[in-house]
Amino acid sequence: MNQPMLEVANLNVYFGEGGDIFQAVDSVSFKVKKGGSYGLVGESGSGKSTVLRAISGLIADWDGRICVEGEVLEPKREKAFYRKMQMVFQDPYASLHPRHTVDRILSEPLGLHGIGDVETRVLKALDDVGLGKAFRFRYPHQLSGGQRQRVAVARALMLEPQILLLDEPTSALDVSVQAEVLNLLSDLRTERNLTYLMVTHDLAVVAHMCEEIAVMSHGKVVEVMSVEQMRRSEPKEAYTRELLMASKGYDPEFFAGEAV
Ligand SMILES: Nc1ncnc2c1ncn2[C@@H]1O[C@H](COP(=O)(O)OP(=O)(O)OP(=O)(O)O)[C@@H](O)[C@H]1O
């Protein structure tokens, strides 16, 4: 196999101190190939977001190995790391500064990294996510939920990263706009050969977006399977079977990829 774009090996994440330590992630390992889209699924509290936060540098208290293109990452990240990897959060309202215009939100990463040509890049970014220049000087509260998440995606792409970490990127959105945002993310991945690691509790979303999934329970990966295997309903583990059944009553057509 070619060198994976992202490799996580024996990742452990702990919260708390002294005698009150809780292990939220327990020996998690997986690989994501360049241009691939990998899903982390599992019930609430299984540790999915914590894995993503450790990879993104938001949590520093972990051990194990995280590599990007073979390069080992330290818990504390250098600025250059953020040109390689960016994260999109669940709730765009919480992740965008309420008193900054879209223009400022999109310009800021460029300023921090000393990248010029700001106006051209901001206008192109708005265009790339299906928002025109009319949105440039709006504030987050003047946008719909779907438009806000498009701005969050545009911001994540300003530094032209190769990897996006997507933490339930559509679950805070109206069902009617979820598919639009997922399609936008899919198109962007194809156009730019981006690598995605996506956390979701929604199996229809991974069926639509991902090629491979790791199923998590109580901080551990209990099963790794291709989305094809999931669609054919071929889980080996009882936990995965239950998860599949619980997802919308498990209608096989639901996982055909078009129902999102
Ligand atoms: N900052 C924190 N301090 C202490 N415990 C935490 C912290 N963040 C998460 N946890 C705990 O770690 C476990 C895993 O949480 P995590 O958010 O990763 O789960 P999840 O699978 O992403 O669930 P959800 O889909 O509900 O977000 C949970 O038991 C949670 O309570």
UniProtKB/TrEMBL annotation:
SMART domains, per the entry: AAA
SUPFAM superfamilies: P-loop containing nucleoside triphosphate hydrolases (SSF52540)
Domain of life: Bacteria
Pfam families linked: ABC_tran
Keywords noted in UniProt: ATP-binding, Nucleotide-binding, Transport
GO molecular function: ATP binding
Domain ABC transporter: 6-243
Listed PANTHER family: D,D-DIPEPTIDE TRANSPORT ATP-BINDING PROTEIN DDPF-RELATED, TRANSPORT ATP-BINDING PROTEIN
Recorded family membership: Belongs to the ABC transporter superfamily.
Protein name per the record: ABC transporter ATP-binding protein
